[in-house]
Amino acid sequence: MLTLHPVPRVRGEITVPGDKSISHRAIMFGSLAKGDTHVTGFLESADCLSTMDCFNRLGIYIEKDWEHPGTLTVHGTGIHGLYPSYSPVALYSGNSGTTTRIMTGILAPQRFITYLSGDDSVNSRPMKRVMDPINAMGGNVVSMNDDNCAPLKITGAPLHGITYKTPVASAQIKSAILCAGLYAEGETTVIEPAPSRDHTERMLSAFGASIVKDGNKRVTIRPAQQLHPVDITVPGDISSAAYFIAAALLKPGSELVIRNVGINSTRDGILRVAEAMGADIKKENIRGQESEPYCDLIVKSSALHGTTVEGDIIPTLIDELPVVALMGAIACGTTIIRDAAELKVKESDRIAAVTEGLAAMGADITAADDGFVIRGGKPLHGANIHTFKDHRIAMTFAVASLLADGDTVLDDETCVSISYPDFFRDLAGVTEE
Ligand code: S3P
Questions:
Q1: pTM
Q2: Nearest Cα to 106, choosing from 84, 79, 77, 125?
Q3: Does residue 355 have its Cβ closer than 6 Å to ligand 1?
């Protein structure tokens, strides 16, 4: 439990921790490459440590530089080099849907049996979305409780390429299929209804895989003989920056510099929506264009107005939608978020969690099946917030607490360790007088 107080303003400078999606992939693809992958800016959060632990159990030695946080070397054993220390191997993916789903694609073509399970949240999230395409490739992935969820039993089998149209835009599904395609006979193509984040495509290409994009919704991979290590610099996570962007925009008199924020165009929807709402955000020092672009953001408090967030932009800010709903609650006019039914199957049902929390604080919000309608401009007051042990709900309401009249109590703040272990320290650093 944590009690939070309103603050006068947000000021100063912050560097948010490394991108979670890119950190997961650095461990995964570094493990499958033959040789040493050096990683800097790695996110040392619970989710990424779950991925690391899975690969440790598959025989991969990952060396951490204790003097430089976020710096490590993955001693990859090559594309056919995963050797579990015992068989069948049991892997635990914790709270991480990314680990669970992408690992399913990596494990399906191996020559051993894996049992893959997560915590209660992961084990209640839909896995049929990866089981169906992987099994269509010849895989043998079974939901052990027969409920289309983890725990999964993955019996390694030879795979063949397919062309698969995913019903939902999801980088986790796409990445699982592409990873399986690395081992499959023939080509594997994924077609999405809208473009999802493309970190897998970028990083696997850099490691030497043959990946061809046709527009931004169709990607094809050919089987790889081997992957070659490359050094990876992980930019700051725009999903973590989003809380500070919102805090600085919404709290009058604020000005904040956020350094090294990843701005890959499949992730930057929050900046585009903020701009549409009238935000004053400047990008400076844009760099990293050859792999993953990043920049410094200068954010100034702004009088926001409502907007409609829908369609292809949704996957580019899916994790930021809770904090966009908060921005809508403070903005003047109505904000509509739709086409975001995926929010119901995240770490918690985020449509329910956001609606409950914002309504408790006095906002005028109505839940829909695929989003929210928020009639902004109502003053927020402190309340008891149920976080549902969801890191993004906890951080969204930590920002809301800065703007509210009176104290706000989070029932569980420890869940921020999933993506941002030092969140409250960093927040205090830019809000204390
Ligand atoms: C992620 C993809 C997204 C996102 C998640 C991380 C990834 O999930 O919400 O936090 O790293 O591939 P979906 O693939 O379910 O959209």
A1: 0.98
A2: 79
A3: no
Selecting among 319, 349, 370, 411, the annotated active-site residue is 319
Per-residue pLDDT of the chain (433 residues; tens, 9 = 90+): 999 999 999 999 999 999 999 999 999 999 999 999 999 999 999 999 999 999 999 999 999 999 999 999 999 999 999 999 888 999 999 999 999 999 999 999 999 999 999 999 999 999 999 999 999 999 999 999 999 999 999 999 999 999 999 999 999 999 999 999 999 999 999 999 999 999 999 999 999 999 999 999 999 999 999 999 999 999 999 999 999 999 999 999 999 999 999 999 999 999 999 999 999 999 999 999 889 999 999 999 999 999 999 999 999 999 999 999 999 999 999 999 999 999 999 999 999 999 999 999 999 999 999 999 999 999 999 999 999 999 999 999 999 999 999 999 999 999 999 999 999 999 999 997 6
Residue having the nearest C-alpha atom to atom 15 of ligand 1: 170
Tell whether ligand 1 has an atom less than 6 A from the beta carbon of residue 21: yes
Euclidean distance between CA atoms 394 and 388, whole angstroms: 8
The one-letter amino acid code at 78 reads G
Q: Is any atom of ligand 1 closer than 6 Å to the C-beta of 93? A: no
User: Among this protein's residues, is 319 annotated catalytic?
Assistant: yes
Calculate the dihedral angle through the C-alpha atoms of 124, 130, 135, 140, rounding to the nearest 10 degrees. Answer: -50
β-pair type (218-221, 188-191): antiparallel
